[in-house]
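Hey, quick one: can you model this chain's 3D structure?
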Amino acid sequence: MGENEIGNIIVDEAITLHRELGPGLLEIVYEVILAHKLMQHGLSIKRQVAIPIEYEGIKFEEGFRIDLLVEQKVIIEIKSVETLHKAHKKQLLTYLKLAGCKLGYLLNFGESLMKEGISRIINGEIN
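Sure thing. Here's the predicted structure for all 127 residues.
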């Protein structure tokens, strides 16, 4: 399954989850339930994946943690805030580059309407 197909499932499930639970819960609640819903689609999901960073010979074992890694291809970063900042999107792009992934979703469950809380971030070209 390609990144775009995975992305369609992610968006559909995020919208459904937001519609059913509403905005403003802790991020971990959305993370656990979204992971469960994506696994029901037969997708491989890893939660809180540590990605090491090496810089000038210094290795940081946990440079960052990916909220959800779907099929080793798509990164999902989950927020539950009133307003996203440009830094959140830049952070996800950095995660994509360091993990070698092409597609990521920044999902803000704090928005009144989920469609306003979905940002699709691309690192390079997607097949």
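One thing worth noting: Residues 3-122 form a domain with the Trna Endonuclease; Chain: A, domain 1 fold (CATH 3.40.1350).
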